[in-house]
Structures are given as C-alpha cells and as structure tokens.
Write a structure and sequence with these properties.
Two copies of one chain form a homodimer.
Chain A: H1 15-29, H2 36-43, H3 50-53, H4 57-80, H5 86-97, H6 102-113, H7 125-154, H8 163-180, H9 189-205
Helix pairs in contact in A: 1-2, 1-4, 1-6, 4-5, 4-6, 4-7, 5-7, 5-9, 6-8, 7-8, 8-9
Chain A binds a DNA duplex (30 and 30 nucleotides) through helix 3.
DNA-binding region (chains A, B): 35-54
Domain HTH tetR-type (chains A, B): 12-72
InterPro entries (chains A, B): Homeodomain-like_sf (IPR009057), HTH-type_TetR-like_transc_reg (IPR050109), HTH_TetR (IPR001647), KstR2_TetR_C (IPR041490), Tet_transcr_reg_TetR-rel_C_sf (IPR036271)
Amino acid sequence: MATRVEPEAGPRSKRAAILAAAVDCFGETGFEATKWSTVAERVGIGQTALYHYFESKTHCLLTIMRLELQRSHDKFSETTADVTDPVEALRAAVRAAYDVSDHEILQMRILHNHMDLLSGPRKSKREEAERVEARQLVQLVERDWTNLLVRGMSQGVFPLRDAQLLGAGVLGLIVSVWRWYRPSGPTPLSEISDLIEGACVRMVAT
Amino acid sequence: MATRVEPEAGPRSKRAAILAAAVDCFGETGFEATKWSTVAERVGIGQTALYHYFESKTHCLLTIMRLELQRSHDKFSETTADVTDPVEALRAAVRAAYDVSDHEILQMRILHNHMDLLSGPRKSKREEAERVEARQLVQLVERDWTNLLVRGMSQGVFPLRDAQLLGAGVLGLIVSVWRWYRPSGPTPLSEISDLIEGACVRMVAT
DNA sequence: AAACTGAATTGAACTTGACTCAAGTTGATC
DNA sequence: GATCAACTTGAGTCAAGTTCAATTCAGTTT
C-alpha cells in the first residue's frame, strides 16, 4: 500500500482551503456555473494565486474527485475488513456508504456529476495524472463490490450470477441517490440508507 | 394530453439535422468538450446559423434532454398500458428501457450526464422554458415507476414499502447503466437488460 | 542584521469559444 | 418578377480561464 503524500506540507499553503472552498462552490453551484475567481475570493486570495496550487479549474475538480474516490475505497475496506458473513458485510458496506458528513455529500455529488471526465484523456500532464489515478480508483471500488459478491457466491450464500455486472448495479443503485438527495429535503438519509440496504440484499441474496 | 408541436415545419429547416449532429457530438465528445462551431460544421452551415434555431448551446442541450425524456415516458406508457400483472408490467418496463437504438443510447448518456442542469433556473427565457418542461417530464417518469409499484403493492403482489423511494431506486439502477455502457464494450445490452430485469423484480417483489 | 532562498502572490495581457448584429441570400407564393 | 419570411453569413464583442514577468513574504544562512 503506497500511501500518496498530498502536497499540503507548507504551513502557509492554502491548498486545503482552496479544496474546501471549491467543494462548497462546485457542490452547491455546480462546476461549470461557479467562476474560478469566486473560489479565490472565498479563500481570500487573487485569482491567479490559484494557479500556484492547481494547473487549472479542471485539475482542481479532478483532485476533488480522486480524493473522494480514495475516501470511499478506504471506508469500504475499513468497514468490511472484519465482517466474515457476506450478507452482514454487504449490509455494513451499504450503511457505510451513507454514513457521511454534509461536506462528503457534496464531494459525492461532484464526483458522480462528472464521472464522464474520467473517460477521455486530458491535455495537460497533471490533469491527466489525476484522471488516470481516479480512473484506477474507480476500478478499485468496482472490484471492492465485485469481490464482496464473489465471496458470497462462492460460499453459497448468494445465488450465482455475473458478479461484475451485478456489482456495477449495486454500486449504481447506491450512488444514484447522490444525484437527487439534499440534506434539506424531506427524506432523512437514514431512511434512504435502510431502504437501499434492504434492496441490495434482496437484489443479491435472493 | 397536449402534444407539443416541434418547430421543425419548414422544408428547408435544419433543426432536425442540428439536433442529430449535436447528439452525436455531445454524446461522444461530451457537451463541454465539443465546440458549438463543430456542430455547425458537421451540419454544413456557418456557426451563426445555429442561433436561428437555438438560443444557445445549452438551449440545444436542454432540448435534446427534453426530447429524450418525452421518448422515455412515451415508451413506458406504450409498453405497460396493456399489461395488467404488476410483475409482468415491471419486467416489460425494464426491457423497454433497454430496447433502444445507438442514437438513443447517446441521448440517454447526454440526459443523465447533465441532469444537474435541471435543478437551477436558467437566465434566458427559452432555456428556462425547456428546463421547466424537462423537469416536469422527470417527475412524470418518476411517477410512472412509482405508480407501477403502488399498483403492485395495493394488489398485494409487491410487499408494502415506500413506493416513491423504491421507485427512485429502481429508476436509478436502470439508468446508472448509461454512465458506463458502450455499444463497443464486451457486454451485450441484452445481457445487461436480463440481469437488471431480474434485479428489479427481486428488489420490488420479494 | 544583511543577504539569500524558494514559496506564495499579483496585475496586466493573452486566448478561446460562445454569442450578437447588421446586412445579405434564398425560395415559395402571388 | 416582386414580395416576404425563412434562413445564412462575416465581422465583430464579451466573459472567463489562463499565462507570465515582476514582486512580496517567511524562514535560513553568513
């Protein structure tokens, strides 16, 4: 496990502040709709100072996406590591997917609203580096879910099916929520979590 | 049911050609990545001629989205109209959702990659009109699925659950495919359709 | 303390691509 | 062949992202 070192070292670096502000702006206003200069304003620096930390607005977006993917994968691993029963592991994984802060909800929204960015190659070096890394993390997360299903199937707990396809389905079902969910909305996240948890179990274990 | 009259009347109108070209470009290259002028080129007209038909690039996108939503709703209605058994209706609806041409696949991709556009209001009149109409169609499609579930639940065929939330889940699961599916990919759409059909039935009817 | 260093920051100019406008062309109809 | 609406264009404007050379700042060396 080579843990990446985020370049946030310098004590007067505003990288973290920029990322936080960008998540707020991109998440609430939308990536295209938010002016890059607005992010600078919110941090309290000039527009051009942003380019000291990120090569472009898109580079910042890709970084946010990669960080969120990393977080998702890590949380999945932590949560399911010590659960042997496949059904319980599945339940725990779904619950973990919805055990998130408001800020993380925004990151989810940003991530899934811009997944298409990961398909085509980018022109600049650093953007492309982030894209490739994010792309790999997507595959890693997909494999996380596939493996969970494979484990259950080989134990005879889940009926045999195309684990990869079904895993994509489960994952798709879970993340589809971030398209429409708003913390201010009428349905509490806990209720959603419960319903999706049940749905996933039925989908996989029936 | 007031059926909208698409302004494609004039015999030398290139509106349909523009829409078709835009679907190809936006679907393959992505909306942001494709230059508006490229669409004009592909149709064989000057860039400014586009503005005779669409107020803006975004207006064209919103129109594509609305048309696709209309198509989805119509297809759902046609398919489920004469099926009384809820389980069979559900199966038929899922199958219909994946019974699409290559061009329609692109439209799906475009639609679901830009759903977020429908949340915030637009500045210009015609864009806003398309947005509102699309927004209503989204709700209509959601209601289509919810009603299908409600019908099954009240008949005692489906266990009682939050039909609206479960409907959103089913719909989310189905459309999540358009994020990653490519006709050139390894998995044929028929296989995906079968797996999702089964998954939906288990999710809802178990 | 003065000199030095690299990180951080800035204002002004540049680039790109969406969009506007005034003027022109085309084709159906009378 | 005159008229009118639909359609098309060239020559621009404008907004927002980006580049770059010059500058400030904080910490380190001498």
